[in-house]
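Two proteins were folded this term; both appear here.
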Amino acid sequence: MARCVLVACLVLCCGTCSQPLTLNPSSSVILEGWAASGKGALMKKVVKYMDPRGFQVHSMGPANPEERSYPFLWRFWQKMPPKGNINILYHSWYTRVLQQS
C-alpha cells in the first residue's frame, strides 16, 4: 500500500514538470535502498508516465580510478540536471553510508 502511494506521489510531482521548460527548476529523484527492495520496479513505474525528453536516469556504481582522483561527491555533481530537467539517480552517495554501517 505504501509503495503505491509513493508511486502516485512521484508521478504527480514529476509528471507535472517532466517536459523540458526553461522556467522550471531542475530536480533530482534519488532511489536508494537495500538490494531487492524494489527500486528498479519503482523507477519503471514512475518513468512510465513521464516525458522522456525531460529526464535522465543515472545508475551510480562503484567509482572508477578517474573518479577516485576527484573529491567524493564530484561524480554526483557531474550528474546534476540542467535547468528544467529531472535527474533520477539509481543509488547515490548514501550507498557508501549504508554499506559502512
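Next, the second protein.
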Amino acid sequence: MKAEHLSDHEIQRYAFDSLECKTDVIEHMSSCSLCKKRVESYLALSNSIQDLPEPQLAFDLSNRVLTQLETTAGKRSILNYFIYSLIALGLVVIISCLFYSAGVLIDLFKSYSGISLTLVVSVALLISFGITADMLRSYNKKINMLNY
C-alpha cells in the first residue's frame, strides 16, 4: 500500500478506467478517504460536463467551412495537375537527352569496371531522390503555410 496519496493521473485512471490500474493503486483507494473524494469530484465534474447542452452558434458555421473547403480543393487539384505535368515534362526531357547522348555516355563509362560504375550510378540516384524528396517536402510545407 502507498504511504503517500495518489497523483492526479492515477486518480483519473482509477475514476475512468479502474480495470487498467495497478494493484497498489486499487489497494490505496480502498483505504484512503481523501483519494476517494478526489475520484468522486472527478466523476462529478465529468458528469456535469456531459450534461451541458450543445453550444448553439448564431450563424451557420458548417456552410462557411464547407465553402472554404470546396474553394481550396479546386485550387489544389489544378495545382496538382500543373505540378504533375511539369514532372512529366522534366522526365521526358531527361529521357530524351539520355537517348540522344547514349553513345557519349557509353564511351564515358567503358573504362570503369562494373562495380565502380554501379556504385557511382546508385549513389547519384540516391542523392537525386533525396534532394527531390526534400524539395517536395519543402514545397508542400510552404504551400500549406500559404493556404492557412
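The chain has three domains: 8-51, 56-110, 112-148. The first helix runs from residue 8 to 16. These notes refer to the second protein only.
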